[in-house]
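Protocol step 4 of 6.
Sequence for HTH LytTR-type domain-containing protein (Paenibacillus hexagrammi) entered exactly as in the expression construct, tag removed. Do not edit the line below.
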Amino acid sequence: MNVALNVRNTYEDFVLEKDIMFFRVGEHGLVSFHGKNYNIKKRMSSEEVSGLTENPKFFKVNTDCYANIAKISGIQDGKVYFEMKSGETKYTAITKLRQFRLKELLQMTKEQAQ
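Step 5 output, structure tokens:
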């Protein structure tokens, strides 16, 4: 008997809002996506990069890095920390001005959810 398994390949078929904690935009359309235990680099067109950077579910934390608002677990000492089930945490740096704006945004999001 042949059984077809529907296994999703995270490296090729990731869901941006669900699987990615943050991404960085590099030169010539190279985008680096950071998930729980992997990093994926993809070359994208300028239209695709514009679509990513304009996504309201991601917040620009510094010049080339966008964080998934839903995956943020905390902000402290110039770093944005992301939810992790294991003992290790992933984080990225954030500027002071954007740190203040992100905290306000997270507070508003929390209030709207209640």
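Step 6, annotate. The helical segments are 16-19, 46-53, 96-113.
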